[in-house]
Amino acid sequence: MTDGRKGNPKYDENTLVVQRREEARKAAAVIGIDKLVFLDNRDAELSASPKTVKELRDILHEVKPEAVFLPFLLDNHRDHRATNDILIRSSLTYKSPLACYGYEIWTPITSPNLFVNITDQIEVKRQANRTALQPDRAVSYC
């Protein structure tokens, strides 16, 4: 959804945009994702603009996903909340069933309605993070 330019004040914003995109490509390769779509909205400025809603609507209609994973609806980050708003608006014309899975990033989910045991996938998750992240970036596993 965003370009990641505000993710680390130690880096020049334009450098960080390139770095974040490369991190996403490396992590995707580890977990077997072969198609990435970058909407390139400016980090910390995401909103449900008509343009962004249309872009995501077009992606939904082209890809026809059965499930979408996104930051938890009440996450305490404006871009994460905006992502949910954009998905809701974009999916209004999507006629197929669509499961939405919210995951926690900054704000703990206090009343989850589903836990997913990732024990069998944790090593792949760790490898994707190790492959993608720069050495000075912290990583935590839930």
Task: Provide keyphrases for this structure.
two-stranded parallel ribbon, 4 helices, 142 residues, mainly alpha, disordered C terminus, 7% strand
How would you sum up this structure, described in words?
This protein has helices at 13-31, 50-63, 78-90, 122-132, and strands spanning 67-71, 99-103. By secondary structure, the protein is mainly α. It is 40% helix and 7% strand. The protein folds into 2 domains: 1-45 and 117-142, no CATH class; 49-111, no CATH class. The radius of gyration is 16 Å and the shape is globular. The chain has a two-stranded parallel ribbon with strand order 1-2. It is built from 4 helices and 2 strands; from the N terminus they run ααβαβα. α1 (13-31) packs antiparallel against α4 (122-132).
The major pleated sheet works out as:
2 strands, parallel
For the biggest β-sheet, the strand order reads 1-2
Q: Tell me the β content.
A: 5-15%
- What number of domains? 2
- Count of individual beta strands: 2
Give the helices and strands as they follow along the chain. Answer: HHEHEH
Q: How does the overall form come out from the CA principal axes? A: globular
Mean pLDDT rating: 91
What is the distance, rounded to the nearest whole angstrom, between the alpha carbons of the first and last residues? 23 Å
Model regions low in confidence, pLDDT < 50 over at least 5 residues: 138-142
Which radius of gyration do the C-alpha atoms yield?
Answer: 16 Å
Please tally the helical runs, counting DSSP H or I stretches of 4 or more residues: 4
Structural class: mainly alpha
User: What is the share of helical residues?
Assistant: 40-55%
